[in-house]
Design goal:
By secondary structure, the chain is an alpha+beta fold. Helices cover 19% and strands 34% of the residues.
Length: 600
């Protein structure tokens, strides 16, 4: 039974358009074309049948074919051929119907008014119609990305989402024998300074660190979500957001609680990279650590601003590859408007990290491989500087070297007073002297990293070693630079002369990991243990792991841990660290962390 074209169109429309008001107009238009195409195909492919209702007239058929041609569903040539064939066969059908009626016996069955015989379409023409309709409609659908079966638009294949979540239980346990007068120099620099004149500062002590009261059962969280885009074969981009209690560069962990208030989200990464060849890449923006290093120098959460060029080339024998990185990292810019209340602004002062590293991977055999790298890091303009005389008592808006205090610091580095404060000649004894502090040492680091991967009883064993030497460490230069203003690392003897001074420029770490270093499949596990020794001025204290000794330098101790994967990309881990100061008054702290991790 052949239905009327109008009924076919009305019936088929919703099957393609869904809820028409919610679809895009272009999609609805494509659906109508497809419905009309199906209708005409059904008309021509159907075998002859009798219709109880009025069949479409020749004029309606012609109008339908012309509509398909105008919509682009049929080409003009095919449409004209179909029109000619429809008209010829319709005339033949009408003639045959008249002859059949005339030849019918009296009293026999006669065609009812309105019955029509639909002309037969050969297999060749029918296949041509079907292929033409299907090919054109689906080609347009695929090119516009609106109805290609089992496919997604091309741009979605170039976008990847990745992230991780970590729920942490943490406790910090302090020794009762710790010194309780450890100054919080970071808090001093973040404020208006500490007045060192006892006549004008009734508070005898500056801000102090907690060194004796345990912090147990802390609930903490880290969440990171990134989007990576393959812009072309040689260009990529990435953006990542992360949690964090503050803008610390070395931690994206958020302490929970806080009255159940909402938590902060920070821009953790935003970068663009270009690969001029398969073995070279240049990255600019804010990106992950491009160097081979341990968390003794750079925290695992630390990201770098600036630009880095990297190469990684496999040599001819395939068992050895060489790699390297050169990085230009801006650490800090002085304020454009300092001093705020002065017509004469200070010149621009910039702090930079210049890093260069070369290394190699060597596959010794199926079970043994070595990886090593040597790096040089030059920290420019990061040391403290004593200012020109500044008359704060007369309303001076800061001093000329306030910019040289670190933007972020943890603890451990040798520090010096920065301000050369002029005394009020009318009342010198009662002139306030609020001070900032800066790093007394320069930092040019030699960083050596080694890693050996092997098998023991069928399980993986990884041994890591890291040695750092501050080649710019010089006690005499530090005291000369400070002009007698060194204020810490005096060995706990109470003396304040260079003879009482205790520091150093070396650091080392060893670590062994047994099992799978990076658990990812269900049942993967590892155990690890290591030791760190970091002298006060081996490196800037602001960029390393914030867990060991609660961050910074002037620390030594051990750490142990274990991990087990419960399911794919889902694992538990635990870590215990125990540390104390290398030099100075006693300060020991143990930290327990239990993590539930997942990545996607």
């Amino acid at each position: 039974m052949m239905n009327h074209p109008a009924l076919l169109t009305k019936h088929a429309g919703p099957a393609f358009a869904g809820s028409a008001p919610s679809r895009h107009p272009r999609l609805a238009h494509r659906a109508q074309i497809l419905a009309l195409s199906s209708a005409i195909a059904m008309m021509f492919m159907a075998a002859p049948v009798s219709a109880q209702t009025a069949a479409p007239t020749e004029t309606a058929m012609v109008r339908l074919i012309r509509g398909l041609v105008q919509s682009g569903a049929l080409t003009k040539d095919v449409g004209e051929a179909l029109l000619a064939q429809a008209q010829t066969e319709a005339m033949a059908a009408q003639q045959a119907q008249r002859q059949l009626a005339a030849a019918a016996p009296a009293g026999g069955l006669r065609p009812e008014p309105g019955d029509v015989r639909v002309p037969y379409i050969s297999d060749t023409v029918r296949d041509q119609i079907r292929d033409e309709i299907k090919g054109q409609v689906m080609a347009q659908a695929k090119s516009e990305g609106w109805a290609a079966p089992n496919e997604t638009p091309e741009w979605t294949q170039r976008i990847r989402i990745e992230g991780d979540i970590r729920a942490r239980y943490e406790s910090r346990l302090f020794s009762s024998d710790n010194s309780n007068i450890e100054t919080n120099y970071a808090a001093i620099n973040a404020g208006t300074g500490y007045d060192i004149n006892p006549n004008t500062n009734p508070v005898a002590l500056p801000q102090l660190l907690n060194t004796r009261q345990d912090r147990r059962n802390l609930a903490r969280l880290r969440a990171r979500l990134g989007v990576l885009a393959d812009i072309s074969d040689s260009t990529q981009a990435g953006v990542r957001l992360a949690t964090g209690s503050d803008d610390s560069p070395v931690s994206t962990t958020q302490t929970l609680g806080g009255g159940l208030g909402k938590k902060s989200i920070w821009l953790d990464q935003a970068w663009l990279s270009y690969k001029p060849s398969e073995w070279a890449k240049v990255t600019a923006g804010r990106f992950g650590n491009p160097f081979m290093s341990s968390d003794m120098l750079f925290s695992g959460d630390l990201n770098f601003d600036g630009i880095a060029a990297q190469f990684d080339k496999t040599l001819a024998n395939k068992d050895v590859s060489v790699f390297g990185t050169v990085g230009l990292i801006p650490l800090e810019y002085s304020s454009d408007s300092a001093p705020n209340r002065s017509q004469n602004k200070m010149s621009s002062e910039n702090k930079w990290l210049l890093g260069a590293q070369v290394g190699a991977n060597w596959k010794l055999d199926k079970e043994n491989s070595l990886r090593g790298a040597v790096a040089y890091y030059q920290f420019n303009n990061v040391s403290g500087k004593v200012s020109e005389p500044c008359a704060l008592y007369a309303g001076a808006d800061g001093c000329s070297t306030d910019w040289s205090r670190p933007a972020f610091m943890q603890k451990g580095n040798t520090l010096m007073l920065l301000r050369n404060i002029a005394l009020d000649p009318l009342d010198p004894a009662n002139t306030a002297q609020p001070q900032y502090v800066g790093m007394a040492s320069k930092f040019n680091l030699l960083d050596i990293n080694l890693r050996w991967d092997t098998k023991v009883a069928g399980y993986g064993l990884r041994l890591d070693g890291n040695y750092i030497n501050n080649m710019a460490y010089n006690e005499g230069e530090m005291f000369a630079r400070a002009r007698g203003g060194i204020i810490n690392n005096f060995g706990g003897t109470g003396g304040t002369t260079q003879a009482d001074f205790k520091s150093g420029g070396n650091a080392y770490m060893i670590q062994a990991t047994f099992g799978n270093p990076s658990p990812s499949a269900k049942g993967d596990w590892n155990v690890m243990a290591g030791y760190k020794h970091i002298e006060p001025d081996a490196m800037p204290d602001g960029y390393n792991d914030s867990t060991f000794h609660l961050g910074g330098t002037n620390a030594k101790g051990y750490f142990i841990g274990a991990s087990y994967a419960l399911a794919k990309n889902t694992w538990f881990s635990t870590r215990w660290t125990s540390s104390k100061q290398v030099f100075g008054a006693p300060f020991a702290v143990d930290t327990l962390q239990v993590d539930f991790n997942a990545r996607f």
